[in-house]
């Protein structure tokens, strides 16, 4: 395979990973607005943070939406991809007790391929060039 073909396929693959990860993280962010009770229950049950108010859930949702948009745009990749990886990693690892009863918690296992996608995207972030930043970088000097 020619180098140009590899770069093109890698670029499209990383964009697909970013779009897929965005779709999950963005829905989770919207959930904080539309169902703050669910957010409070998740924070209590998985992170040990009780009495999360609807207002704080909305603030967290707003911050997560901002991060998701930055992530989708491919901006500040080390920061945005890294924070997405950390957030999803915390969610994945905080669910550890559910993995011990797999057949009653099958949906929790979907977190692992998503975690792998977040990790792969973070590790390959320098090759993820189908971003808004690409519009502003002179290809002759990059």
Automatic annotation (TrEMBL):
The entry's keywords: Membrane, Transmembrane, Transmembrane helix
Membrane-spanning intervals of the chain: 12-30, 79-100, 106-124
Top-level taxonomic group: Bacteria
Name this protein carries in UniProt: DoxX
Species this protein is from: Pseudidiomarina piscicola
